[in-house]
């Protein structure tokens, strides 16, 4: 009987370990003007994108409570393409994303409006995308 109780106790302890992970805050910013651009992101041309958004993450236990990592999503023809990396920002005027591949994107952050603009440097021109914070995508 003791063996059975011990086994059940250990099993319940093992399955509850996921509850001990740190909680993560997630902030989602949706791209709004990508369809007007003439460029590719994650090897998908902007005219073929159905959705573009960035999820930013941080640990609740973090002392500054600011996102530190991101995941970029590009949706095209039912396929989802992603990129991950780290964030550097003062959360007032600038923001910079560095992918795990070493690519860096920088732009202007406007905390009061919940937006940021990233400038993508192309061969002889630039494209600027605006991302707006929302709970869900506005379709």
Structure description:
The protein is mostly beta strands and 139 residues long. Helices cover 10% and strands 49% of the residues. It contains 1 helix and 10 strands, in the order αββββββββββ. The protein has one helix at residues 2-15, and strands at residues 24-31, 40-41, 44-45, 51-59, 69-76, 79-89, 94-99, 104-110, 115-121, 126-133. The strands form 2 sheets. Strands 1-4-5-6-7-8-9-10 form an 8-stranded antiparallel β-barrel. A two-stranded antiparallel ribbon has the order 2-3. β5 and β6 (79-89) form a beta hairpin. It is globular and about 40 Å long. The N and C termini lie far apart (58 Å). The model is unreliable at 2-21 (pLDDT under 50).
Write a brief structural summary.
Residues 2-21 have low confidence and may be disordered. It is built from one helix and ten strands, in the order H-E-E-E-E-E-E-E-E-E-E.
Tags for this entry?
disordered N terminus; two-stranded antiparallel ribbon; mainly beta; 8-stranded antiparallel β-barrel; 139 residues
Strand-helix topology:
Elements: H1 2-15, E1 24-31, E2 40-41, E3 44-45, E4 51-59, E5 69-76, E6 79-89, E7 94-99, E8 104-110, E9 115-121, E10 126-133
Antiparallel strand pairs: 1-4, 1-10, 2-3, 4-5, 5-6, 6-7, 7-8, 8-9, 9-10
């Amino acid at each position: 009987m003791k063996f059975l109780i011990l086994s059940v106790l250990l099993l319940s302890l093992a399955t509850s370990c996921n509850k001990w992970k740190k909680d993560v805050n997630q902030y989602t910013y949706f791209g709004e003007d990508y369809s007007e651009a003439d460029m590719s992101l994650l090897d998908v041309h902007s005219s073929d994108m159905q959705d573009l958004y960035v999820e930013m993450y941080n640990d609740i236990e973090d002392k500054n409570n600011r996102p530190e990592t991101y995941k970029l999503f590009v949706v095209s023809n039912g396929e989802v393409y992603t990129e991950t990396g780290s964030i550097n920002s003062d959360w007032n005027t600038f923001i910079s994303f560095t992918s795990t591949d070493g690519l860096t994107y920088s732009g202007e952050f406007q905390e009061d409006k919940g937006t940021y603009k990233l400038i993508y440097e192309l061969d002889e021109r630039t494209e600027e995308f605006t991302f707006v914070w929302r709970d869900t995508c506005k379709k």
